[in-house]
Design goal:
The complex is a heterodimer of chains A (207) and B (77). Chain A is of the alpha+beta class and 207 residues long. Chain A has 7 helices and 5 strands, in the order αααββββααβαα. The longest helix of chain A is centred in the N-terminal third of the chain and has 34 residues, at 2-35. Chain B is 21% helix and 26% strand. The two termini of chain B are 22 Å apart. The chains are: A alpha+beta (207), B alpha+beta (77). At the A-B interface, helix 2, strand 4, helix 4 and helix 5 of A face strand 1, strand 2, strand 3 and strand 4 of B.
Amino acid sequence: MLLALAATALVAIALLSDVILPRLEEAWERRRARRQRVPAMNYDPGRERRAEQRARTLLRSCVNEEEWAMYRDLGFIRVWGSQAGNPDERSSRSGAPYAYLIYPHRPVVAYIPQTHRLLSEYCVAFPDDSRPYGSARLPDSDDVLAKWMALTGDEQRLIKTANMHLPGRQIDPLQVKRDLWRLGQWEQARLRQSAGAPAPHAADSAS
Amino acid sequence: MKPGHGEVLIAEGDVELAEDEERLIEEFRRQLDEGLWAAVPFTGEAGQRDARMVRSFDEIPRDAERVIFFPRAAGGR
């Protein structure tokens, strides 16, 4: 009787082995994978934050006090254009002064300060040529400083290098208009402050 | 300026010392050969902050405090 049972069990195992063995192997592999040590990564979560801190310090040491305060408070810097007409010579309007808004990692926006008319977007980047595939970006404040230096140091060279687009391609014109309005409010508040008058409540200035 | 790292000190020295100057020139050329742009921030006569792009060591004012190297600009998307 016992022999018969053992023989039956052996036959059953032999028949089921095709089904059971792969599953056992899979389970074993999964167990091994779970127990395998995860390789240590050299990722430093604070690196980018520290890089940005250094970049802010460097930016602050290069631009003037007003530009620094503008960036700190509004998140962008205005740079006055130095050419006689518009930066884009093809649509030059002689004598019209213009300015740029520099945003971190976004196109430089050219506009006419008197009318707030947007002229164009200049898409420019500062890629790391030593690491063409998946290179890291400059910290935000370094990107702003690079644009600031390139614009104030050699405006034409930067404008020629950049890809020019009509306003609104990447930055919503309404956002730029809002930023220009905020800039105006901010400048008025600074003027009042420097004149010694008390600044109006934020809600008053927004109405 | 180094992508992913921010400001990195490359070299420092006194241009009045021949040995330092030679080292600074060599480093300046190396950075430009690697494709970086160089700029010298300065304060103008009216007190405004400004920057000058330089392409050779001779263009750097002797009293410049620093030269900032940053990746060459390229047309973005």
